Amino acid sequence: MKKLLIAAAVAMATPFAHAEAPADATIETTQASFSQIDADQDGTISKQEASSFSSVEVMFDGADSNKDGALDSTEFEQANKPADAAAK
Ligand SMILES: [Ca+2]
Ligand SMILES: [Ca+2]
C-alpha cells in the first residue's frame, strides 16, 4: 500500500516537473524573425515582405531610417530595441 502511494505521488509530481520546459525560441528571437520575415532571403525586408507580419508592417516606416523602402538587419534590430533606450 505504501509503495502504491509513492508510485502515485511520483506519477502526479512528474507532469509538474516538466510543465515549465522552456520554449525553444528564447535566444536570437530577432535574427530568427528577421529571416522569417525576409521571405526571399536577400538580407532586407521589403514592404511587401513586411505586409505579411502586421507588427512589422506597423513599425516599417519608422524603422526604415534611411528611407530606402526596405529594412536591413541593423534597422530591424534598432526598431526592436526598447523605445526608451533611444528616447533618453
Ligand atoms: Ca527580402
Ligand atoms: Ca532601410
Question: What would you say this structure looks like, in words?
Answer:
The protein has helices at 2-17, 29-37, 47-50, 54-63, 73-80, 83-87, and strands at residues 44-46, 70-72. It has 88 residues and is mostly helical. Helices cover 59% and strands 7% of the residues. The radius of gyration is 22 Å and the shape is elongated. It has one domain: Recoverin, domain 1. It is built from six helices and two strands. It has a two-stranded antiparallel sheet. The site of one calcium ion has 7 residues, from β2.
Question: How would you briefly describe this protein structure?
Answer:
This protein has 88 residues and is mainly alpha-helical.
List keywords for this structure.
binds calcium ion; Recoverin, domain 1; mainly alpha; two-stranded antiparallel sheet; elongated; single chain
Structural topology:
Blueprint: H1 2-17, H2 29-37, E1 44-46, H3 47-50, H4 54-63, E2 70-72, H5 73-80, H6 83-87
Antiparallel strand pairs: 1-2
The structure holds calcium ion (2 copies).
